[in-house]
Design brief:
The chain is mainly α. The chain has helices spanning about 5-20, 25-35, 40-50, 90-130. It is rod-shaped, with a radius of gyration of 34 Å.
């Protein structure tokens, strides 16, 4: 029966080989691993490189020329003295909800003022028409 070797042990072996011989080819390391009874496959090389800190950099998610997201209520220009945000998601949601409600109330007040103005105009038109 074949003895199973854990992935961590295989990664450690490949990382050790890469640390000793940085220019070693994958085929050479795979061959050395098979001699020790290890199943070395491409994922193991990636994990070993990551363990050594020589893996590829993680992508930021934005392509070239794609602008940063602009949050409502902020300026579109980049802030040169950026400080870390300490607001929680709930606080941001609550503040945006309050701002939304205040906006609705302001709009309702402007509509109420418009109704009052139009009633005054109708009264003037009615008095001119003789009613």
């Amino acid at each position: 029966m074949k003895q199973l070797v854990s992935r961590a042990e295989t990664v450690d072996f490949v990382a050790g080989m890469l640390a000793k011989h940085p220019g070693a080819k994958a085929a050479e390391i795979t061959k050395a691993g098979k001699a020790k009874g290890l199943n070395v496959y491409p994922l193991i090389f990636g994990l070993a490189r990551k363990q050594l800190g020589i893996g590829p950099k993680a992508k930021t998610g934005r392509g070239p020329g794609r602008p940063r997201k602009v949050v409502a209520g902020t300026t579109a220009a980049p802030v040169l003295h950026a400080t870390p945000m300490r607001k929680s998601v709930a606080a941001v949601a609550a503040s945006s909800a309050v701002a939304g409600i205040e906006g609705v109330i302001t709009h309702m007040r402007s509509l109420d003022a418009e109704v009052t103005r139009l009633r005054g105009l109708l009264t003037q038109i009615g008095s001119i028409a003789g009613r």
